[in-house]
Amino acid sequence: MPLKPDLIVKKMELNPKNIVKPGDLVSLNDYPPEYTGAYEKKGQTKRRLKKLHKELLELQGLLYAESQHSLLIILQGMDTCGKDGTIRRVMGGINVQGCDVFNFKVPTADELSRDFLWRAHKAVPSKGKIGIFNRSHYEDVLVVRVHNLVPEQVWSQRYQQINDFEKMLVENGTVVMKFYLHISKDEQKERLESRISDPTKHWKVEASDIRERAYWDNYMQAYEVMLQKCSTDWAPWYIIPANKKWYRNLVVTECIVERLKKLDMKYPEPSIDVTDLTIGD
Ligand code: ADP
């Protein structure tokens, strides 16, 4: 029976199974990308999402005022999985002054002449801020692994190097949240076809999207290894069912709000006694 909007569950929407336990063997076939929890349609989630957006804005204000932590959000997934849409819809309501988005493209010659984490480290948000990685250092164990862009002996060391890097970030006050936006191969086909049939979306279609689709199974395998090796106590991976954009937005927003609440942030003590202040005319 469909749930009435006002009966919608108040608890954490994401199934605990979708937070990958360190070392867990992950088979992505076990995670239905079309899953929408207690909801059947977008309209049922609107009120809850609105409330979460309000909370997120308040929490961002606290993060900025307290300036003891930063929040790094990492988004990964296959082409068309909705990284851009997630950024637009989840972070759309927050104060842009406190948030930076970084897109990780094919590395430049300068980036390739350094260690693979260099460009990621440079982009980590400063205290008080939110940073979003649209793709990330994980490309160095995904596309790089699938296409053997460096020898196996090099990419195979990177899982541990990434875990150590993220641990260092966490120990220095950065909260690291990693979302794998899980879509099905059929859903990707539909999204690519809809881009091809809509002239206003042609600019989004790249030959590489079609080319990389042929490597779908290799990517799934690379994602499974990444999820198993790099979901840690300090920086867990979340597997987000992402065929339905509205459910994806709800769950990602909820995860971020819940995580920020756990920081138990406080506004800093005023540096002067404001109760005695009078403002001159
Ligand atoms: P997006 O697909 O995220 O909207 P682009 O179309 O510009 O953005 O794609 C960025 C491309 O850069 C992707 O194909 C991605 O695999 C590639 N890329 C990112 N990081 C690396 C890397 N370290 N090595 C090789 N390719 C990378």
Could you please describe the fold and organization of this structure?
The protein has helices at residues 46-66, 83-91, 109-112, 118-123, 143-146, 152-155, 158-171, 185-197, 207-213, 216-230, 245-262, and strands at residues 70-77, 99-103, 130-134, 174-182, 237-241. It is α/β, with parallel strands linked by helices. It has one domain (26-32, 43-264): P-loop containing nucleotide triphosphate hydrolases (Rossmann fold, 3-Layer(aba) Sandwich), CATH 3.40.50. The protein has a 5-stranded parallel sheet with strand order 2-3-1-4-5, with helices on both faces. The N and C termini lie far apart (63 Å). The model is unreliable at 1-11 (pLDDT under 50). Bound molecules: adenosine-5'-diphosphate (ADP). Adenosine-5'-diphosphate binds next to α5.
Pick out its properties.
single chain, 281 residues, alpha/beta, 41% helix, globular
- Uncertain spans: 1-11
- How would you name the oligomeric state of the polypeptide chains in this document? single chain
Provide the helix percentage. 40-55%
CATH C-level class is: Alpha Beta
Average pLDDT, rounded to a whole number, is: 92
Q: Helices and strands, in N-to-C order? A: HEHEHHEHHHEHHHEH
Distinct small molecules bound, one entry per kind? adenosine-5'-diphosphate
Distance between the termini: 63 Å
Q: CATH superfamily, please?
A: P-loop containing nucleotide triphosphate hydrolases
In one word, what is the shape? globular
Radius of gyration: 20 Å
Known CATH architecture: 3-Layer(aba) Sandwich
Fraction in beta strands: 5-15%
CATH topology: Rossmann fold
Quick one: biggest sheet? 5 strands, parallel
Derived from helix and strand composition plus strand pairing, the structural class reads alpha/beta
Compute the number of strand runs: 5
